[in-house]
């Protein structure tokens, strides 16, 4: 037998229980803003000009652009379009950038734990007690500087170890975004009680699309529109979740921001926008917690 896991059972999208989002809406749409801090000349990198190479000052500066300029352009766009967001927050950002924290609080966005820094992941070789310490450090720092203890998690790089969901549940987390496995939320098993997984994209993520697969900003914007149009039609048959994952140092660049804004305007001004729940990951989770047992996959056991 091949190695496997026991986090969830297989069930096709055609064999799900029927439900709707609040107000009878069929497609839940949320924006995930990744707000990150990186180690200087150390740790994991993301350099499109030197893939797999060691971190450089130039690459550090490019990513730091996101916190100085890019994230603010994205906040402006979201404010203009009156769009909520979920903030995937490195705890080092909470400690080092008080004006970013103030903006997040002023907007009222939900904050998810996103590790201490994207220079490290939960999945790197380490003992379980050390991984639990990383989670605790992130959680406690965000609570200290943001004033709210996060209950949602999306790990750096969406990378987990074999025990990450167990440790997250034991640390008080109620939902995670690390598994791009479905278009509906469902309950995953842990060694204690289940944890909810909320859809989060590998594909419609600017890091993968623009930095790793070399698409252009306009191609990414077209993908967002195509994804929205297709999922809006699909959601007539099943309620779905569409997330757009963004980074300030990537789509906060002016030449990418312009087509992104056009795509977002298409979504929020769509003729069928009344079928769409413009929301946040935490609000999706809260709604799912209140659904009758048996509605979502795995909810019978929770």
Key traits:
302 residues; alpha/beta; TIM Barrel
Describe it:
Helix 1 runs parallel beside helix 9 (254-268) and helix 7 runs parallel beside helix 9. 40% of the residues lie in helices and 13% in strands. The chain starts with 26 loop residues before the first strand and ends in a 13-residue tail after the last helix. The model has no long low-confidence stretch (mean pLDDT 95). It has a single domain (18-289), classed as Glycoside hydrolase/deacetylase (TIM Barrel, Alpha-Beta Barrel). A hairpin with a 6-residue loop joins strand 6 and strand 7 (195-197). It has 302 residues and is α/β, with parallel strands linked by helices.
Silhouette: globular
Structural class: alpha/beta
The secondary-structure element order is: EHEHHEHEHEEEHHEHHEH
Q: What is the straight-line distance between the termini?
A: 29 Å
Major β-sheet annotation = 5 strands, parallel
CATH homologous superfamily, by name? Glycoside hydrolase/deacetylase
Reported by name, the CATH topology is: TIM Barrel
Number of alpha- plus pi-helical segments:
10
Rg, Cα atoms, Å: 19 Å
Total number of β-strand segments?
A: 9
Instruction: Compute the number of structural domains.
Output: 1
CATH structural class: Alpha Beta
Question: What is the secondary structure topology, with strand pairs?
Answer:
Layout: E1 27-35, H1 57-81, E2 86-89, H2 91-96, H3 98-107, E3 110-113, H4 128-146, E4 152-153, H5 164-170, E5 175-176, E6 186-188, E7 195-197, H6 206-212, H7 217-234, E8 240-247, H8 248-251, H9 254-268, E9 276-278, H10 281-289
Parallel strand pairs: 1-2, 1-8, 1-9, 2-3, 4-5, 5-7
Antiparallel strand pairs: 6-7
């Amino acid at each position: 037998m091949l190695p496997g896991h026991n986090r969830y059972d297989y069930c096709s999208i055609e064999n799900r229980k029927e439900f709707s989002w609040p107000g009878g809406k069929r497609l839940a749409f949320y924006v995930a803003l990744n707000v990150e801090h990186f180690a200087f000349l150390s740790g994991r990198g993301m350099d499109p000009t030197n893939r797999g190479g060691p971190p450089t000052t130039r690459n550090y500066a490019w990513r730091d652009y996101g916190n100085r300029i890019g994230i603010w352009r994205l906040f402006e766009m979201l404010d203009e379009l009156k769009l909520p967001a979920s903030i995937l927050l490195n705890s080092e950002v909470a400690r080092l950038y008080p004006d970013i924290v103030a903006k997040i609080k002023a907007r009222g966005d939900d904050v998810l734990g996103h590790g201490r820094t994207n220079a490290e992941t939960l999945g790197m070789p380490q003992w379980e007690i050390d991984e639990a310490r990383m989670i605790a450090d992130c959680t406690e720092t965000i609570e200290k500087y943001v004033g709210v203890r996060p209950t949602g998690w999306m790990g750096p790089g969406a990378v987990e170890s074999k025990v990450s969901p167990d440790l997250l549940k034991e640390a008080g987390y109620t939902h995670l975004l690390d598994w791009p496995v479905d278009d509906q939320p469902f309950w995953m098993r842990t060694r204690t009680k289940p944890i909810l997984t909320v859809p989060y994209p590998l594909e419609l993520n600017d890091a993968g699309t623009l930095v790793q697969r070399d698409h252009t900003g306009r191609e990414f914007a077209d993908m967002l529109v195509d994804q929205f149009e297709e999922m809006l039609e699909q959601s007539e048959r099943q309620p779905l979740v569409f997330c757009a994952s963004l980074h300030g140092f990537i789509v906060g660049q002016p030449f990418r921001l312009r087509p992104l804004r056009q795509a977002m305007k298409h979504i929020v001004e769509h003729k069928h926008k009344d079928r769409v729940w413009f929301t946040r990951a935490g609000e999706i989770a809260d709604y799912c917690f209140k659904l009758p047992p048996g509605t979502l996959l795995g909810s019978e056991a929770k």
